[in-house]
Specification:
The chain is α+β, with helices and mostly antiparallel strands. The protein has helices at about 15-45, 50-70, 70-80, 90-95, 110-120, 125, 160-185, 190-205, 210-220, 255-260, 265-285, 320-335, 335-345, 355-365, 375-390, 400-415, 425, 430-440, 450-465, 465-480, and strands at about 130, 135, 140-150, 150-160, 230, 245, 250-255, 285-290, 295-300, 305, 315.
Length: about 475
Amino acid sequence: MPPSVTTGPLRAVRPLRLLVRTLTIVATLLPVWWLVARRLLWAALRASPARLSPLDERAAQRLREACERLGVIFVKLGQLLGVRADFLPPPYVVQLARLQDSVTPVPFRVVKPALEREFGMPLHLAFEAFEETPLATASIGQVHRARYAGREVVVKFLRPDTRELLALDLRVLRFWARLGRRIDPRRQWDLIDDILDAIEAGFFEEADFAAEREHAERLREQLAGIPGVYVPYTVPARCTPNVLTLEFCSGVRIANVEQIRAWGLDGDALLNRLVELYARMMLLDGYYHADPHPGNFLVQPDGTLVLLDFGLVRELSEPTRRTLYTAARAALSGDIGRVVECLYASGMLPPDAPRAEAERFVVSFARLSVAFNQDTRGRVTALEDLLRGYPNLKFVIPPDLLYAFRLVQMLEGVASNFRPGWNVVADGGQGLAAAFTAFLLDGPPDGSASPFDRFVDTLRLGFGTAARTLVDRLGILVRVLAR
C-alpha cells in the first residue's frame, strides 16, 4: 500500500498552506482564463481567424507554462489533454504534447547531490560519463543520458519534493471538493474524490522505481519473441527505489509523424502492430503496459517499436482471460447459452439481469449486420440502437477490465497524430484480428484446451471470416461501453 498523503507534518500547517497554495493556483491560471475568455468573446463576434489564431497560440503556451509551474497533478492533466488531437485545437495539442517529456528541468546542481545520496558515491564514480542536460523531463521523473560499463544508458530519477507537492495539491483539491459539496451536494463531487484517489494511488505506483524495474524486466522477457517490438534492458547495479537506469535506445517519438513518413514507414502498419501488441499482452499474457501515451513509444528507422516507461502496469486475471476465451469459442460455434453464461461470469451483466432478455440480445447482436462496414459511426449507432431495445440490460465494465477499456481511448489518442478520427474498430481491425486468432489458437491460460478443440479452431480461423466478424462486433461493443 502506498503511504497516505494525509499524514505527516503538513497537517500542522494545513490552513495557511492551503490558502497559499490555493492563491498560487488561482493566480497562475488567471492569465490563461483571461486569454480564453477573450478568444471566446472574439469568436462570438465572428472575428477572423487572423485575430483568433494569435489568441489561441498565447493561451496554449500560457496553459502549458501554468501546468509546469503548478506541478505533478496539473502536468498529468495537461498530458491527458495533449494526446487528444481530435478534441483540442492544434495550438493546444502542440503545447501540451511538450509536457510528455519536456517539462522545465530540475537544475543539475540539485540533481547531482540527489543522485550521489542515492548511490552512496560521487557521481563520477557511479558513471563513466553523465550528461548534465536532461534528455527528457516529465511530471514526476527526469531522464539523463550517461555511460556505464562502456554502454550507453539513461538514468531516470524522481524529481525532488514531488511527493510533498502532490500531498499539498491533493489536500487543496479535496478541501475545495468538500466546500463545493456543501454548496451544491451533487454526485459529481463524489466523482472528483474518486479521481483524486486514483491520481494518488497511480502516483505512488509510478514513483516506485524498484517496481518499475521489475515490470520492465518481465515485459522484456514476455515480448522478446514479437517481431518489431523492443523493451530496453535494465542496469540493476544502478537502480534504487528512486532511480532507474536502463539501456539507451535511439528513435523518434511515435507522434513525430513527419519523420516516420520520411523514413518510408507505413503508418497504418505501425498502428496495427501497436493494437496487436496491446491485445496480445492482455489476452495471451494477462500482463500489460497500461500507459500508452505518445511519450512512451519510440519508433526506429527500421520500424521497430520501442516501449518506454513501465511505471503503470496492469494484469488481466486468469479467470477473466479464461472466461473471454470460452465466450469467444462459444460465439464462433453459435452456443448462445454459453455466451450468456460468460457475460454473467465476467461481471459485464449483473446477476439480477433477466436471462431471457440477455439471450435475445446475444442473438440480435450476432445478427447485427455491421461487419466490414467502414462507416464506424454507423456501426456504433447500430449497436447503440440495439442496446436501447433492451433497457433492462445494464452492462457494466468489471474492475478487472477497467484499464483495458481505458486503453481504447488512449490508443486512439496516439493514433490521431497519424490520422484524426482513427479508431480501434475500423482502423485497427487487422491488429485485433491477429491477436484474437493467436489467443484462440494458443488456448486458455490454464492450458486446458484439447487437441481436438485446437484443430477445430485452426480450421475455423483458417477461413477467417467468422473470427474477423466477431472481432469487429466485439470491438464495437468495447468502444460503446468505453464511453
